[in-house]
Amino acid sequence: MTNLQFIDKFRGFNRFYANLLGKFDFKFYGELFTIGEANVVAEIYNNHALSAKDISENLTMNKGQLSKMLNKLEKNGIIIRVPDKEDKRSFILSLTEKGKQMYLEQTEIVRAGLREELVPYSKQEIQRLDCAMTVFKNTYEKNNLIEICEAKIQDIGFVADLHSRVYSELGYHYAIQTHILNSLSHYTEQPHSGKIWLAKVNGVRVGSIGIVENDTADWEIHWFAVDAKYQHLGLGKQLLETLMNFVATKQLLHVYLWTINELTQARNLYVRSGFTLTEAIPTKKWKEHEVMDEKWEWKHN
């Protein structure tokens, strides 16, 4: 998708959301507060020692518009202004008891209205909306919630799908997918032989890494991949660090992995983690052109 295509979709989403807010404004607001007044009152209710400047910045409101609104709220006995002890030119805003009660009443009106609004939606649809809201907000604010956690057996399908997508996008043959599926299938028969970790961003699974003890008591790293849409967030580094912490905890003396020379980002991480390239084998098994199967090893010093 080009930036221009995204911008057109983004503008369309903004129109949709503006219309939705207009609908909510008409249905839920007006009797106690307008939607704009409700936002200002909520900001004061949920924070301490706020000035008009703070509210203007937090809500991205025009100072003149905000000043008129605050004058109205003060006149109606909803807020009070107290001189700021640290800045005599400024005032600290707080709600009166009447203002607090009106805010709570307005909150219940909105909650009741939204409960009715959500009646046609299934639990699964509400969960998807919740996930979509979290992803949009955190991504737009560049405040992503990143989590590295142990995978469960039901996550094996995700790991297989992730690798299928990643390697297909990189132009690899189906043979590499078969190889990965076979290794995962073997792991499901003996899950106690190793561990898999997942990377999640805003609750969405986007990466994986694993390590397995094979039949000769050697430990091999597998299934290291991150969805291309979530790269440059440091997820690969965090996944590998988590795995190496496991290696340290288990007091393992030696681990190894096989990779492909073209996967330079992963190779750079291996180098920084103390792995050494010990073997390279040319092959056309994975792609039309020749690549190098590489063995990287880590040994405890």
UniProtKB/TrEMBL annotation:
The answer, when asked if DNA-binding is one of the entry's keywords, is: yes
Q: Matching InterPro entries, A to Z?
A: Acyl_CoA_acyltransferase (IPR016181), GNAT_dom (IPR000182), HTH_MarR-typ (IPR000835), WH-like_DNA-bd_sf (IPR036388), WH_DNA-bd_sf (IPR036390)
Give the Pfam families listed for this entry.
Acetyltransf_1, MarR
Q: Which UniProt keywords apply?
A: DNA-binding, Transcription, Transcription regulation
Domain N-acetyltransferase per the UniProt entry, residue ranges: 146-297
User: Gene3D superfamilies, from UniProt?
Assistant: 3.40.630.30, Winged helix-like DNA-binding domain superfamily/Winged helix DNA-binding domain (1.10.10.10)
Protein name, as recorded:
MarR family transcriptional regulator
